[in-house]
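Sample intake sheet
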Amino acid sequence: MRLTILIPTYNNGATVCDVVKRALAVWPDVMVVNDGSTDDTLTRLEAVSGIHLVSYPDNRGKGGALREGFAEARRLGYTHVLTIDADGQHYPEDAPTLIEAARQHPTAIIVGSRAFDDPNMPSGSRFANRFSNFWFTIQTLHSIPDTQTGFRVYPLNGIGGLRVMTARYEAELELLVFSAWRGTPIVPVTVRVYYPAPSERVSHFRPRADFARITLLNTVLCLLAIVYGGPRMLIEKLKSLIAR
């Protein structure tokens, strides 16, 4: 297994360098995708040594940044990518736990699951995750505790849906659904999460617009589950039974 930590970022100048340096302290291979930031993010990153920096001038959304990072990781010969958000909510120190789980389950997507009983967790985030979890179960017949976390390990050969992946936040849910349809195991691992005070939070999530996009995506995925996902999962199940 050859793994790089991938950190997509857009206008996270105040937090991204701390995340990057903490990631470098636990793992030597770190890639950062600067998704067209308009603040001082790029200038700050260029001053950090030891990282592989991918940058482009136009903002393509998180889905676009992930796609760029996955493509670059493949080009460089990596087999796995650990993604972590640049806003400081995740603890890079938990990355070795996810990496060890990936070693034990090399074909699986490892999902860093947050604790939803944290009193500091925004109520909107709690509701959005429960909403997303419900539809994920309907679409895949699988249940996992956290479908919206950005702290994950992806096996690059096991990711489904890259060609049709949407551009923004809903892309991470889409990756899980398409991967589940193609039979990729999904293994949850408990991780810590830091929720700063509301005045310190930096979020590019647009509640109305992005929630509407997620709702539309779930509608499309439910339809696809009937005509594609369900039959695909049945085929994968039959293949595994025959292989035994």
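Comment: The first helix runs from residue 16 to 26. The mean pLDDT is 88.
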